[in-house]
Design a protein that fits this description.
By secondary structure, the chain is of the alpha/beta class. It contains 12 helices and 7 strands.
């Protein structure tokens, strides 16, 4: 069960409680599931009971107990513990992580992308300032990943070198719905087109030209800070050490590719399976589709950039245990760890691609 499926399961439990008369609330559109916080337990936690308590006119822990019984009816959930004011902590069967890894490896860099057009037609507008143009380019990529048709208009004339040096598309007003290099299906047959109004994208301007950083570091410097924060240029975006978030993301991806090569040399391939002690990483990988949707909806590529840093940091502790040591023979556990590492690398590469940044296999 992926976090998205778990969220639907939680909402189904709410809906059952409403239908059976134990809760009198409006079923929310989504239920947020995250790794448990301090004092929590299990694989995931949700605050849905606290969210519903006021409308239900019942204490949060009572709401949580009502939902607990219904959640335990799902054979994929092995335990549900109520903690604190009414948090539901859920433990999943061991096959859950294997199913998620299998889905990621099957979909590749398109994991988290829409599988059909959304019907939304979006026109982005931004001033002809370097950061605004790069942010609009990244937002367009994110929107296309969610099935939207996108046009980008620039108020002014962007510098021509931004196209070659920063990888932005300067074709003012061109429909970019077919330009998704990741292959999102954009067949619009039987899809109603809905214009979506979007405010002018005006992030805090770059203090100086980022072109000397090169395409990848320059785009990261402009996209990683939130729109209301001033980007640091030159900053430490070219330094190859752990203090540089971009380096951590790309280095972690390159390490996962190296492990795949090393595994092949040792004669074993990745095979999804349960991997103990990786609940945080699995939760983050499962949350990737939601992050893409949120970053596209709110026009916040910085949200995706920060998510990639978190995924990279959660992946690093796994990597030393992937390959057999000494005379140790490859086992199912090694194959499962290799598959999880490959899935993490796939998410990192796909996320960087949506930011317009390369993910090299060697670094």
């Amino acid at each position: 069960m992926t976090p998205v499926e778990l969220s639907r399961t939680v909402l189904h439990a709410v809906r059952r409680a409403v239908d059976e008369g134990e809760l009198s609330v409006t079923v929310p559109e989504r239920a947020v599931v995250t790794p448990p916080g301090p004092g929590g337990c299990g694989d995931y936690a949700t605050n849905i009971a606290l969210q519903l308590a006021r409308a239900a006119e019942q204490p949060p822990r009572r709401v949580a107990e009502i939902l607990r019984g219904r959640l335990l009816d799902d054979h994929r959930i092995t335990d549900v513990v109520v903690t604190g004011a009414g948090f539901l902590n859920l433990s999943l069967e061991s096959a859950a992580s294997a199913a998620l890894v299998d889905e990621i490896l099957r979909r590749g860099r398109r994991y988290g992308h829409a599988t059909r057009p959304s019907g939304n037609s979006v026109e982005l507008r931004c001033p002809a300032e370097v950061r605004a143009v790069v942010v609009a380019d990244a937002v367009a990529r994110l929107l296309r990943s969610q099935g939207d048709s996108v046009r980008v208009r620039h108020d002014g004339r962007p510098a021509p070198e931004w196209e070659s040096a920063l990888g932005v598309d300067l074709r003012d007003g061109v429909d970019l719905s077919e330009v998704d290099s990741e292959g999102t299906d954009t067949d619009s047959a039987d899809v109603t087109i809905r214009p979506v109004p979007v405010p002018l994208l005006v992030p805090v301007p770059a203090p100086t030209a980022p072109l000397p950083l090169g395409r990848d570091a320059a785009r990261w410097a402009l996209l990683h800070p939130a729109a209301h924060d001033r980007p640091r240029i030159p900053g430490d975006h070219l330094i190859q050490r752990e203090t540089n978030p971009l380096f951590r993301v790309r280095y972690t991806h390159a390490r996962t590719r190296a492990l795949l090569r090393n595994g092949a040399d040792l004669g074993f391939d990745p095979e999804p399976g349960p991997v103990s002690g990786t609940e945080e990483l699995v939760a983050l990988l499962g949350d990737h589709p939601r992050i893409l949707t949120a970053a596209a909806t709110h026009h916040t590529p910085d949200r995706l950039a920060r998510h990639l840093v978190t995924v990279a940091d959660a992946t690093s502790p796994l990597l030393p245990a992937v390959l057999p040591l000494g005379e140790e023979k490859p086992s199912a556990a090694h194959r499962a760890r290799l598959a999880l590492a490959e899935a993490a690398g796939t998410v990192l590469a796909g996320g960087l691609s949506l930011l317009g940044i390369d993910a090299p296999d060697h670094l």
